[in-house]
Design brief:
heterodimer; A: 250 residues; alpha+beta; Ubiquitin-like (UB roll); Fumarate Reductase Iron-sulfur Protein, Chain B, domain 2; 2 domains; two-stranded antiparallel sheet; B: 218 residues; mainly alpha; 3 helical TM bundles of succinate and fumarate reductases; 7 helices; binds protoporphyrin IX containing FE; binds iron/sulfur cluster; binds FE2/S2 (inorganic) cluster
Chain lengths: 250, 218
């Protein structure tokens, strides 16, 4: 290994949710612009640990490699981030890679984010446009609403905002920032607003918006720069108005 | 969580009540308490007159229990429950908001312990007839003095952060700019309460009345 620069990577391996976890260390050949996904690919190509033991390729999720599919979120040096945009040159070595801790583990670095999809269903995070007959054209969306909605629509359901939230844990079914922000997005759309009160009611159920304690970690962790704290504040305002003033002023 | 539910869950209502009681009446009482005790900065007589005034309000027990003790017990008790259900992670994510989240909880419990002791010594043991001389005497005990200072700082800090939380969590400060302004306001309240609280303590400890010049000269 005379002139070649090496990259030292430690990966937490776990064959299944009930198996014991162990760390494996790898030494990889450095290349320019290397990111964490490339490290995992290099290991798959030659699954041999640093001390020369043969092992198996690491299971991980990834797809787009450009921070747009949301599948590659993991803990890199202890912090939740997207592996495809985590550049090796900007990381302290040995680079520690492990699965996110707030979702059920499937294998190695793969977790099951079904909780987020179930939550999106519960809050009806969509705009109903189908009927049994032609519903005609919907109302026009003002450029102002479009401008506010676009950043929110960038959410890739990566789960980083849940992973970093102190209020998301096993004591607590808190749906997390992403889902609240999606409620804001669909409530601000003129057609989506037809289900506004239903979405707000869903968010005032167990694990709803009340669990937010304003630590504001989510907004720092979001790879898409979504204004999550603003979304939470706005949805919070709509929610208490509906819950506490609804019986009074309708 | 259920999409068909139309009534908010009990946890929603209790959480809102917790947040609200932190400000009203508990926070408001803290403000009133500091204000009344500032009378010591003028003179011992003024302090005794002010406390006499408060000790003889009509419906005193109802006001004390309904307006102060019970809301405080609820806010503190439910605050501990909220605390136990969260999992702080500042070592992995040492961001300011995250630190405030953690310290908010510790300052809350310190304030709760302090207030409990303070009520016992200054309200219970005196049968609600505490006077300047009693408090001044207590302040001569260095342990009491330290506990007073810690309690005042913890309560002020907790209220300052709490005001910021409240404004964000009720959506009264929603944009990033508004939340920053709310943060500055909370910090101002925290610092102002700390300073006034410490001045009052010093007043008792050193029999120091910086505003005595307000009194008519005899
Ligand atoms: C001096 C007495 C106290 C005052 C003036 C006070 C005031 C406040 C205020 C204004 C808030 C903000 C409400 C919100 O988050 O929306 C708050 C929150 C909180 N308080 Fe207190 N509080 C006091 C005592 C306590 C005690 C004794 C505890 C118990 C540990 C406590 C625990 C909490 C917690 C955990 C929060 C955060 C709530 C959340 O994240 O939703 N507080 N307090
Ligand atoms: S809001 Fe941001 S951090 Fe949360 S799931 Fe969406 S993209 Fe990920
Ligand atoms: S691979 Fe799609 S976000 Fe990283």
């Amino acid at each position: 290994m005379s002139e070649t620069k090496q990259v030292i990577v430690k990966v937490k391996r776990q064959a299944g949710p009930k198996e014991v976890a162990r760390w494996e260390e790898f030494s990889l050949r450095w290349r320019p612009s290397m990111n964490v996904i490339i490290c995992l690919r290099d290991i798959a190509e030659n699954p041999v640990t640093r001390d020369g033991k043969k092992t198996t390729p690491i299971s991980y999720d990834s797809n787009c490699l450009e921070e747009i599919c949301g599948s590659c979120a993991m803990l890199i040096n202890g912090r939740a981030r997207m592996a495809c945009s985590a550049l090796v040159d900007q990381l302290e070595q040995p680079i520690r890679i492990e699965a996110m801790s707030k979702f059920p583990l499937v294998r190695d670095l793969i977790v099951d984010r079904q909780f987020m999809f179930e939550s999106l269903k519960r809050v009806k995070a969509w705009i109903p446009i189908d009927g049994t007959y032609n519903l005609g054209e919907g109302p026009r969306v003002s450029p102002e609403i479009q401008g506010k909605g676009y950043p929110l629509s960038n959410c890739i359901t990566c789960g980083n905002c849940l992973e970093v939230c102190p209020q998301v844990n096993e004591n607590n079914q808190f749906v997390g920032a992403a889902i609240i922000s999606q409620v804001r997005l669909f409530n601000m759309h003129p057609t989506g607003a037809m289900n506004k009160s239903e979405r707000l009611s869903a968010l005032m159920g167990p694990g709803g918006i009340q669990e937010c304690a304003n630590a504001q970690n989510c907004v720092h962790a979001c790879p898409k720069g979504i204004p999550l704290t603003e979304s939470i504040a706005e949805v919070n305002r709509d929610a208490w108005k509906q819950a506490l003033l609804g019986w009074l002023v309708g | 969580m259920s999409a068909t539910a139309t009534q908010p869950d009990l946890s929603y209502l209790l959480r809102k009540l917790h947040s609200f009681t932190g400000l009203l009446p508990v926070g408001a009482f803290l403000a009133e308490h500091f204000w009344s005790n500032s009378a010591a900065l003028v003179s011992a007589e003024k302090y005794n007159a002010t406390s006499q005034e408060l000790q003889t309000i009509p419906f005193r027990l109802i006001v004390e229990w309904g307006g102060i003790f019970l809301p405080l017990l609820f806010h503190g008790g439910y605050g501990i429950y909220i605390w136990l259900r969260g999992k702080s992670n500042v070592s992995a994510y040492p961001w300011v908001g995250n630190w405030l989240y953690l310290t908010q909880r510790y300052m809350g419990i310190i304030a709760f312990a302090y207030i409990g002791w303070h009520l016992y010594t200054e309200r219970w043991l005196t049968h609600g007839r505490s006077r300047y001389a009693n408090v001044a005497e207590d302040m001569q005990n260095p342990w009491y003095l330290v506990f007073f200072i810690v309690g005042v700082l913890a309560s002020s800090f907790h209220l300052g952060v709490g005001i910021w939380n409240f404004l964000c969590k009720w959506g009264l400060a929603a944009t990033v700019k508004a939340q920053q302004a709310a943060g500055r306001f909370g910090a101002f309240v925290g610092v102002a309460f700390s300073v006034v609280g410490i001045l009052i303590i010093l007043s008792f400890r050193f029999d120091w009345h910086p505003f005595s010049a307000y009194l008519p000269t005899k």
